[in-house]
Amino acid sequence: MPATAKTAPPAAAVAKDAHWAATRERLRNRNRHTAALTICDDLDAKTALETARYALRRIQAEAADRPEDQTVKGAVVTAEQEVATAQAAFNEAAIILRFQALPRLEFEALKKAHPATEEQAEDGHDLNVETLGPELIAAASVDGMTVDDAREYLDTWSEAEAAALFNAAWNVQETSRLDLGKG
Questions:
Q1: Assuming Cys at both sites, which of 26, 35, 37, 166 could form a disulfide with 172, CB separation 3.0 to 4.6 Å?
Q2: 96: part of which helix (H) or strand (E)?
């Protein structure tokens, strides 16, 4: 049944749960999962942020041991401000790429459109990630990255960075926000 079709909730479900209509509406209005890939080429900004975070963790641990010490409390406030300043500098230098999960049927169709080559299949692969990668990255990009952009980045970035780009677009497809706890 298409997602846009509006039908009355099953009578048995309504009888069992008076809030089924509201639950059903919430389920229809869920946002697809989104993930971000942060790129920061400014080593100084990255180092300053990590150093500030480390200093904050240390002073917070000291403050936990000495809860009445006003000097330590003041040092925590100062360290928090230093983290905020370092985070702002990092954010200014960073590039954030955002990816959103595709509707399941769209993702499945995209995978089917990129079957493994004979050689890849002999190596146990189901998909041709070389052709799928740019298409998936562009389709999942919230920022409007094109297939040509994605292909360029995959071809020119280091292997680790290209893998991180592909994995950001792939992993958001496989993230579950469900909890199958005891009922």
A1: 35
A2: strand 95-100
